[in-house]
Design goal:
4-stranded antiparallel β-sheet; alpha/beta; methyltransferase; 4 domains
Length: 640
Amino acid sequence: MCEAFGVQENPTITAAEIARLAGVGRAAVSNWRKRHPDFPAPVGGTTASPEFDLIQVEQWLRAQGKLPELATADRLWRHLAAASETPAAGLAAVGAFLLARQRGSRTGQPDAHLAPLMTDIVELADELGPQGAFDELWQRFSAPGPGRPFATPDDLADLMIGLANVGGGSVLDPAAGSGAILRAAVRAGSTSVYGQELDDGLARLAGLWLALHDVPGEVSTGDSLRADAFAGRAVDAVVCHPPFGATNWGDDELGHDPRWIVGTTPRTEPELAWVQHALAHLRVGGHAVLLMPPTVASRRAGKRIRGELLRRGHLRAVIALPPGVAAPHGVPLHLWVLRRAATDAPPPARALLIDAAGGDLTDTGPRVLAAWRDFADAPDGDVEEAGFARAVPVIELLDEDVDLTPARRQPAVVGEASGEHLARTRERLAAIVGELPGLLPQVTTAPDGPDGLFLTVGELAKTGALQLIGPVRAGTSTPAPHGPPVLTVQDVLAGLDASGRVDDRFGQEIPLAVGDVVVPMIARQLTARVVTAEGALLGRNLYLLRPNAAALDPWFLAGQLRTSANEKQSSSLSGTMRFDIRRAQVRRLSLDEQRVHGDAFRRLDAFESAIRQAATLGAELAQLTADGLARGSIRPDATR
């Protein structure tokens, strides 16, 4: 068991990793080594890049008061990630042990390489159960970081599964990675899932997740195009994030493959090979959803295949997504939605093109899903939302280029660019800019310098100074047709009112109160927001900090949380932007002093809100002016 788990007897850590561990710069670690004779000596590496015993370093940092106490899962993952050949191999080794434990195999000794970590593994399994322990470690593995592959984000995977209309049917992902899409299928109610993945370590992880969650299915290792592990199997849905731009995908040996149901795939169009592979595994009427690079919609080499997919009624929609929805790709990727058409059925007259590239997936995802469902219910209907969605006649798409880029098929949205509109927009911008200096709080240098007395959020929760709630996970509550709005992560980051709604994935309903402080668990930077109105529910992936009014001022708390130091302190060892807010530190001040500081933080929040408004209005003003000048509806004022 666990041959690939290259765990050392004594896990090591570099000086740079020690700095991240303690939340300091590398220079501080160098100073500690010079000034403290008891600092652990190197146990490996080189003179220029020494390595230290991780456990010895942690003990020294803790004795010096430089290391916050960690939860068992955090401590175990830190040791596992530092000591493993790869994070995937380390998690797979622990997962295999947890699966054996879940199935009743408690006798004998596990792999010897796990011995230094067994106390924490058993403690976590006793506390949460084998499945819960694996899920805790999985959360840490799935955060982007060194040695970990980019996974399809959950919100994108959920959208893809929603478009495929999985329900309780069977799902196949032929490029499964670590299983993000398969997990989304299970969340949506799929009763059996299958996957194939080229990387053996990732395939093992995805299979372990299914086994520990008692989900029927199988994940095989191998190249789906060259060695299809599920040849001959038809499923209800194929959902896939295939590799992009492969230059050696097997076109020479697969020239007459029976999966090419609309024609031989050109060598330069590997993504269209994945499209045909997906179609070949669908039952008639089943849907496939694939994430694609945008060039596949317009490259000349793929024109014939695109045309045949349209003529035979297989290609039903192309959806342009916002930029950056799936790292490391920064361009607006596309989703292709296909339906396996019966050979004797007349092809639909229209295909749906959606241009959602200008928004954010949190906002546009539900809109995309609604437009697709409207179209799927009436595929020959005239679905059209100016600048967003259009059911395009197939005959129109079958032109010289067969270009399926959604933005090129949308009717233009002509904005008002009259002199009066421009003047109103300019006046609004000037008014906001004029208010900016007065919004900034007045500050002076503290005569005694920085005050170093701090408590962590975890310590404040233990003393009763605040209540820590959440984050809310996906659940199975029944959606209310007209329920209260839900405050989402995107709302918090953008400073907007609650815009979400309770859906069939919503967990516990937690009403927000005035004075609550909410913090996203995953974001590009640590953000804290004070709730100023009642009536909304706490959304998924948000921490809720409810201050005791007799001990903490909410604006002071929010201002303290959002510092650069807390961003480093509360993020993971790998530097990812997944935050454990319990580690964040809050300065100790009397309640009266907190209120003075809280007022300054409140003014700073208003200043930032005004800056955002000014940026939005400035961009709108520039676009209106450019459009008006180009169309001739306005002209330059020669007198200025």
